[in-house]
Amino acid sequence: MEVAVLDITGKDTGRKVELSNDVFGVEPNDHAIYLDVKQYLANQRQGTHKSKERAEIVGSTRKIKKQKGTGTARAGSIKSGVFRGGGRMFGPRPRNYSFKLNKNLKRLARKSALSIQANDNNLVVVEDFNFDSPKTKNFVNVLKSFELDTKKSLFVLDGENSNVYLSSRNLKNSKVINSSEINTYGVLNANKIVMTESALEGINSHLSK
User: Fold this and answer.
1) What whole-number distance in Å separates Cα of residue 42 and Cα of residue 79?
2) Residue 183's CB: how many other CB atoms inside 10 A?
3) What assembly does the database describe for this protein (predicted)?
4) Most buried residue, 18, 80, 108, 114, by CB count within 10 Å?
5) Which of 3.30.565.10, 3.40.1370.10, 3.90.190.20, 3.40.50.300 is the CATH number of 2-46+99-207?
6) Rounded to an integer, what distance in angstroms lies between the CA atom of residue 81 and that of residue 84?
7) Residue 3: which of 28, 22, 20 has the closest Cα?
8) What is the tens place of the pLDDT at every residue in 14-68?
9) SS3 of residue 117 by DSSP
10) Measured at the alpha carbon of residue 118, what is the angle toward residues 116 and 123, in degrees to the nearest 5?
């Protein structure tokens, strides 16, 4: 599959690049996509939820009523979860939600996501670009050139590009990442993916293994 190379104003440069069938032309694997997205979202969870259990409640330790003869259930502590103000039974505890996935599966999931976006014509390849200084206005102009100012977009660059990254940081619908940081959730969550030529080469070499 060939796609035209554009400049940052959205104009055709007259050049074309070939998208590797090994990366952008695979048969999408829905289950691999599901697992990779599930892992990504699980890794975003802090897992710091915690409620107090009966051992952590401050209160008297005396037996609150006699064992027999009251006609009601026996009770030994005011800190029991059955009483108001007592500890919570089986409440949430801090935990780590992350889990491991096979590298080959993650690679398949990312190739599947890129193939879906490429087949839907949601992939744009642009010349390598940079800004002289970090200014949000410069990045907004780029978005307007591609009619992405009201849509979710993912810009994939090659290497560290602090000026472009800082220029996009205030815009909630746009995200700038390095080619090595590409992930299934980010690819599928964007309406359009804008990728530089050098980033395309990096993705091809990284995912074609």
Assistant:
1) 34
2) 19
3) Part of the 50S ribosomal subunit.
4) 114
5) 3.40.1370.10
6) 7
7) 20
8) 898 888 889 999 999 999 999 999 999 999 999 999 999 999 999 999 999 999 9
9) helix
10) 125
